[in-house]
Amino acid sequence: AGRHRLTTAPVFIDKMPENYSCIGFIHALFPRARFIDVRRCALDTAVANLRQLYARGRRYSYSQADMAAQSRDYQQLMQYWDDTLCGRILRVQYESLVAKPERGIERMLDFLDLPMEDDCLSFHRTQRPVTTPSAEQVRQPLYISSIGHWRNYAPHLGELANMMSEFLQDDREELSKHGIELSAPSGMRRLKRLFA
Length: 196
What we know:
Number of helices: 11
Radius of gyration: 19 Å
Structural class: mainly alpha
Strand content: 5-15%
Order of helices and strands: HHEHHEHHHHHHH
Strand order of the largest sheet: 1-2
Number of strands: 2
């Protein structure tokens, strides 16, 4: 944040994936801060991370078990902050955003009290340097081809899907079509044992 604070810009954005773990700290420093929580299909997110060789950090991206634990931690912590910071977090579904970008971008800008500008829809034409793993994607318009990308790896994702089953219950039928049968979420298994 320090480099952003040296400018006169009234707003700055930081999209680092690990920011969710610092929301309390960020909120304490910047009480008017708002957060946008973009959610994507948990298996698509996991596969995208497992396929990416990061320069540093993100150790969870090297094992399916760690990726499942990271996903669970993220979901639980974001639910806590969503309950705690009422109205400060906007949840956006990635699949809806890429299907109707103008509507999704307007919704985010409204939440942030920022005006719509042409550059918001033509972000891919930027000339600024980009040094993140998404550098290539930033140069393209939003696309839908990565939605459901996990299907290409379905034969290898049974263990991961079961470790993440509490977040995939709505996708049970689609997973089954690809040979992945979910067990009951661990919390449900514990409840069943208690009441058996």
